[in-house]
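PROTEIN DESIGN WORKSHEET
SECTION A - STRUCTURE
LENGTH: 367
TOKENS:
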């Protein structure tokens, strides 16, 4: 489905197939237009090829190395298999080099992984992001018998990633797909701020009655901001926590990776004075920081939503003041000395903090 989606989004099908044929697996590859629940998609098929049931990581790596692939496609494919080997080794509790690739060592899975890496390279993709991942539910029958969905290797590969289960009780994310995301994905959650260039759909074999069995790939350019990302916002109204608790909560949230934490005064029902706690977080940190808010404050509920965060280009420059060194943040809009470093220098030298900060700004402008 991944290869089909990337071809549907513009990757050269002939080039993908040529690269796969160079692996010498003896398989045949076809690409055809299909429909799933009324959605037009591309179906990528792998047929025949070597029938060897099990392969170890070194054998799979040898197959990748012998292919006529670009350096980037080759390195990405090797990375996917290595990530998968780590997960399988953990599940089966054997050394990574002794992992038996069963289904993933078969010709179709090798072709899927290498084909996806070739297609990403052909499209010039520099960053892979993913929505939350629908693992499916129920059970799946594999080499080791009947297993719950997600399969053990899939669950290991998706640790730390946002997942959910919706739709038919079947496997919707395979170890192959999970390995591609785990190895190459850089962001998981809401779609980042970007300009959509093209999209494509890759079709699965089954045609579900509940929803179209397709995987969508979206090609997009980042927006013009120097940094434009999606953030999670956590909000809650608190009217019965002490100032000491609120202060401690703010400090803990910042230590645990929040991008920003603020309190705003509120007047709530029954004329109660209260505080609005707002936490800005990376999407991957949302659930962990929300748990801290629940644990440390008296709130019984919160609001979660996404927002676009744009940040101007900036750089850190170290300046020498003659009596110590501090870092200064330089942006198009001005210069900002690092407060904590200035505070430490002021305390160690006995100089007024405002003088240290003014000297830092002057030193940067004169450099």
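SECTION B - SEQUENCE
RESIDUE ASSIGNMENT:
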């Amino acid at each position: 489905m991944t290869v089909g989606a990337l071809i549907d989004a513009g990757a050269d099908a002939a080039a993908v197939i040529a690269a796969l044929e160079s692996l010498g697996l003896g398989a045949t590859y076809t690409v055809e237009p299909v429909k799933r629940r009324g959605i037009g998609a591309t179906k990528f098929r792998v047929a025949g090829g070597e029938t060897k049931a099990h392969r170890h990581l070194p054998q799979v790596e040898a197959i990748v190395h012998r292919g006529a692939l670009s350096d980037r496609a080759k390195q990405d494919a090797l990375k996917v298999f290595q990530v998968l080997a780590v997960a399988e080794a953990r599940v089966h509790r054997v050394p990574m080099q002794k992992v038996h690739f069963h289904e993933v060592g078969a010709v179709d899975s090798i072709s899927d992984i290498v084909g996806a890496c070739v297609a990403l390279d052909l499209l010039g993709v520099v960053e892979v992001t993913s929505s939350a991942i629908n693992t499916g539910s129920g059970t799946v029958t594999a080499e080791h018998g009947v297993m719950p969905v997600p399969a053990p290797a899939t669950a290991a590969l998706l640790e730390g990633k946002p997942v959910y289960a919706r739709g038919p009780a079947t496997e919707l994310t395979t170890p192959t797909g999970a390995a591609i995301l785990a190895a190459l994905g850089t962001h998981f959650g809401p779609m980042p701020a970007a300009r959509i260039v093209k999209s494509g759909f890759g079709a699965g074999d089954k045609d579900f009655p509940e929803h179209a069995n397709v995987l969508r790939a979206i090609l997009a350019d980042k927006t013009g901001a120097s940094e434009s990302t999606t953030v999670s916002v956590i909000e809650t109204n608190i009217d019965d926590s002490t100032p000491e608790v609120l202060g401690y909560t703010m400090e803990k949230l910042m230590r645990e990776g929040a991008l920003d934490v603020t309190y705003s005064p509120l007047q709530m029902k029954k004329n109660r004075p209260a505080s609005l706690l707002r936490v800005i977080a990376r999407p991957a940190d949302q659930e962990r920081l929300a748990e801290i808010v629940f644990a440390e404050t008296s709130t019984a509920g919160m609001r979660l939503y996404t927002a676009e965060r744009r940040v101007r280009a900036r750089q850190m420059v170290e300046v020498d003041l003659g009596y110590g060194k501090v870092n200064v943040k330089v942006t198009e809009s001005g210069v900002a000395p690092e407060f904590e470093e200035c505070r430490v220098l002021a305390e160690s030298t006995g100089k007024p903090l405002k003088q240290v900060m003014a000297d830092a700004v002057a030193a940067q402008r004169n450099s």
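SECTION C - NOTES
The chain has a mean pLDDT of 91.
The CA atoms of residues 25 and 228 lie 43 Å apart.
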